[in-house]
Design brief:
Order of helices and strands: HHHHHH
Strand content: under 5%
Helix content: over 70%
Distance between the termini: 13 Å
Structural class: mainly alpha
Length: about 190
Amino acid sequence: MTLRTKGLLKMLLVGAVVLAVGIIVMTHTSWFLKVVMIAAGISSFVEGLYTLFGVRKWCFTEFTRTFAIIKGVEATIIGIASVFVTIFAADTFLSVMVYIFAVGLIFSSVVSFENAFVAKRFGIPEMKSHFLIEGIVTLLVSLILFFRPIDTIVTVVKVLSIIFIILGAMVIVISIIALIRSKKQEA
């Protein structure tokens, strides 16, 4: 078996896995949403701890330092709550957690806008646009979550699963065609 054939077989396997993930997500959307909420909770918890421990190293105004500490505590609490509510509570709490995440995102956007405002003062003017973009994107995501949160998330998940199915199928077809051509060239 040539190196190219091995690569094409790996590509075929990746395509099959991507296709399978797309089908599983499409057919088990509520289960996937729970996994996403747990992952988001863990991410929020880690971000909160990073913010709380990183506050000591950063240059801040007193106002910004207070915001960062509140953001760190809020993200840590939301992370813990998200994981436990998703694991142990009924599906009805999913929308409650989405609203809580949306509120947390609004607060994060306020912190990002404040960081953009003081970036130049602390000698990092190149970060101003980064903080502004982060604040705008975070604010937009939070607003989207406030309007029909579960419907929005389910729609996004379904679209992503369709994309996975299409990509997986394309990779499978391309790798099969390449394998057939490779076999003809070897013969």
